[in-house]
């Protein structure tokens, strides 16, 4: 009898332990997910001035996925708004670098000017194209303020290719790929500007 009681008690204790563990996991799952979303937001949105939007852009995706462009592929995008008016578009673009895929996040304001570019993924050569992953990134910052027409199409190239941009030292292929991807994104934005930001933008 004592043995039976001991077994029952052990089973009950095990059940209580499992139940408590499940309860803790269930109640904390939402909090963990919310914290992860906050981390993702900070990582993805730190190119936008905090006072330039008041929505949750990552919860307002644009209707695009895996759109092939001239030199890259648009994987997706998000819309930032302030007081209900579009303030910026963030486009996730992928291109092929020297050693593999490069994924960039490209922020464009409602007037079509580049707010910033951030590397999300890359596998370029460390110390060369791999410097693309540094944040903040001086080379990527050199594109801020540009648009699809500023410079003109032939200016969207390396200086060694008669364009207007310097390259990452020792990383010609990587630099060309990024320049073409940024230009792709800016042109695509212009083509869809009315659809995404309507007439809220002011020249």
Automatic annotation (TrEMBL):
SMART domains: FMN_bind. It is a single-pass membrane protein. It is found in: Cell inner membrane. Residues 97-189 form the FMN-binding domain. Keywords: Cell inner membrane, Cell membrane, Electron transport, Flavoprotein, FMN, Membrane, Phosphoprotein, Translocase, Transmembrane, Transmembrane helix, Transport. The keyword DNA-binding does not apply. GO terms for biological process: electron transport chain. The modification FMN phosphoryl threonine is found at residue 172. GO terms for molecular function: electron transfer activity; FMN binding. Its cofactor is FMN. It is an enzyme of class 7 (translocase). GO terms for cellular component: plasma membrane. Its EC number is 7.-.-.-. Belongs to the RnfG family. The complex is composed of six subunits: RnfA, RnfB, RnfC, RnfD, RnfE and RnfG. Part of a membrane-bound complex that couples electron transfer with translocation of ions across the membrane. This is Ion-translocating oxidoreductase complex subunit G. It comes from Pseudomonas frederiksbergensis.
């Amino acid at each position: 009898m004592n043995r039976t009681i001991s077994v029952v008690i052990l089973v009950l204790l095990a059940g209580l332990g499992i139940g408590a563990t499940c309860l803790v996991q269930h109640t904390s799952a939402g909090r963990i997910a919310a914290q992860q979303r906050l981390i993702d937001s900070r990582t993805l949105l730190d190119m936008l001035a905090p006072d330039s939007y008041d929505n949750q852009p990552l919860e307002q995706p644009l209707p695009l996925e895996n759109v092939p462009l001239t030199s890259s592929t648009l994987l997706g995008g998000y819309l930032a708004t302030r007081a209900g008016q579009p303030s910026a578009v963030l486009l996730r673009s992928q291109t092929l670098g020297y050693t593999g895929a490069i994924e960039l996040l490209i922020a464009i304001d409602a007037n079509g000017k580049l707010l910033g570019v951030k590397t999300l993924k890359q596998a370029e050569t460390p110390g060369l194209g791999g410097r693309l992953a540094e944040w903040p990134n001086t080379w990527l910052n050199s594109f801020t303020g540009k648009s699809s027409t500023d410079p003109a199409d032939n200016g969207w190239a390396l200086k060694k290719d008669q364009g207007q941009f310097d390259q990452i030292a020792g990383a010609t292929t990587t630099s060309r790929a990024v320049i073409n991807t940024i230009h792709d994104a800016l042109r695509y934005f212009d083509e869809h500007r009315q659809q995404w930001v309507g007439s809220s933008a002011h020249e």
